[in-house]
Each structure stands twice: as structure tokens, then as C-alpha cells.
Amino acid sequence: MKNFDGQDYILEQGIFADLALVKAWKADESGNLVFRKTARNFNLPAATCGKICVVEVEEIVPTGSLDADCIHLPGVYVQRMILGAPYDKKIEFRTVRTKEAA
Amino acid sequence: MGPECDWIPELKKLFPDARSALDGLLRDDLLIASGGFGLCGIPERLIDAVVESGVKGLTVASNNAGIDNEGLGKLLRTKQIRKMNSSASSFRASWKSSSARRARWPNACAPVARASPASIPRPASARKSPKVRK
């Protein structure tokens, strides 16, 4: 419990994981990661709280070919990575409404 | 970047498969943080490798525990997880079949931001009696 400006707050210890498991979309050879859409979700906090971060990605590209401005997670957080492709996406489906006949 | 960086051993991060990538890292009673939400953005291959390794007594921190036979649900099935830290509880069957203890966070707090005001409302599902407004 800690008091800031007269208001009590609960202050809990953060999570320091021994191992972080992360899934990303693209990585370059240095481990800089790009996530895809909502699959970014909790991969960033998981990666940064781990002492060792192991990543699986769908595609690995040469270092320098990803735009530096578009990197979601810098490679300094990544210790090991694998290429996990091909993936069978269990939840991502494209659904469109059936068109009514004119 | 390029050839001049090759001498730095840390830059050789790529491993041929999940098992070799986790080699030397897995042991009993680890605290593992896993990314993903439900089946979206989950490290499937790495979770499979953890299942295969057979390590036990794990504490896992993740938004939720996948479903019965996918994601972290696999680790619950094999009873390798001793304690599960998550903000959203998953389907019941995985819990029934496992002996894991649950530590549930209110949905309002993401795993990163644990310093929360004491006045933060508990999730509706945790309240004893819902308020009825007339």
C-alpha cells in the first residue's frame, strides 16, 4: 500500500518470468519483431518480462529489410527464435455476408 | 549491418526447431510468461515443445489459458501447470481436468500494469450480487 497525494494505491511487484514464450509474425535475423494485427496482444509484455525470451515467427527476413520505424519489439529483448511456419490458424477466419440475388 | 556484425555470437539467435530453442532453459517450477490471447497470437510450437519436455510444477502468467486442447490448455491437460496467473479464466473443462491453482487478476489490469488503485472495481462476475437499477 502506498500513498500518492492522499490517495492509497496497492503497489504490487511486477512479474519477472524465467522464460517468455512469444509468437510474432515477422522477424529479421537480429530478432527485431513485427506482430500482426491483434496477435500483438500480450506478446509484448510477455517478451519484456522474461529473463530469456524465445520467439516463434511465421517469416524470417534479412536484417535491415524491415523498416526500423515499424519494429514492435526490438531484437535486444529476443534471445532465441524459431521459424514456426506453416501455421494452421484456428481462430482467424474470413467471413463475408452472402450477396442477395438481384 | 551485415557481415561486420557476424562475429557477435549473440546475433545467432535462430534455432532449427522449438525443442532445440528451449534446450537448457526448461526445468521444473519455472515461471513462464506466454503471449497471446485465447488462440490468437499464441506460441503454439513452443508450448508443444514444453508439453513434450515433460517439465512439471510450472507457474504460467498469461492473459488466459487457451482452450481444452489448444494453447496453454495442453499444459493444463498434462497437469504440468501448478499455478496459472491470468486475467480471463478459460473454458471449464481444462480446469476440471487439471489440479492447477488459479490466481485471477481483474480484467481491468493487464499483466504489465500491476500497480492499480485500490478503488479499482472488481469484474462484474466477481461481485456477489449485481446492482439492479430501476
Note the main sheet of chain A.
Answer: 4 strands, mixed
Low-pLDDT residue intervals, each spanning 5 or more residues of chain A: none
Quick one: overall form of chain A? extended
Shape of chain B: globular
What percent of residues of chain A are in strands? 35-45%
Q: If you average the pLDDT of chain A, what whole number results? A: 91
Task: Describe the protein.
The complex is a heterodimer of chains A (about 100) and B (about 130). By secondary structure, chain A is mostly beta strands. In chain A, about 5% of the residues lie in helices and about 35% in strands. Chain A contains one helix and six strands, in the order E-E-E-E-H-E-E. Chain A has one helix at about 45-50, and strands at about 1-5, 5-10, 15-30, 35, 50-60, 80-85. In chain A, the strands form two sheets. Chain A has a four-stranded mixed β-sheet. Chain A has a two-stranded antiparallel sheet with strand order 1-2. Chain A starts with a strand and ends in a 19-residue tail after the last strand. Chain B is α/β, with parallel strands linked by helices and about 130 residues long. Chain B has helices spanning about 20, 45-55, 75, 90-95; strands at about 15, 30-35, 60, 80-85, 100-105, 115. Chain B has a four-stranded parallel β-sheet, with no helix packed on it. In chain B, helix 2 links the parallel strand 2 (about 30-35) and strand 3. Chains A and B meet through strand 2, strand 3, helix 1, strand 5 and strand 6 of A and strand 1, strand 2, helix 2 and strand 6 of B. Strand 2 (about 5-10) of chain A pairs antiparallel with strand 6 (about 115) of chain B.
Q: Key terms for this structure?
A:
heterodimer; A: 102 residues; mainly beta; four-stranded mixed beta sheet; two-stranded antiparallel ribbon; 1 helix; 7% helix; 36% strand; B: 134 residues; alpha/beta; four-stranded parallel beta sheet; 4 helices; 18% helix
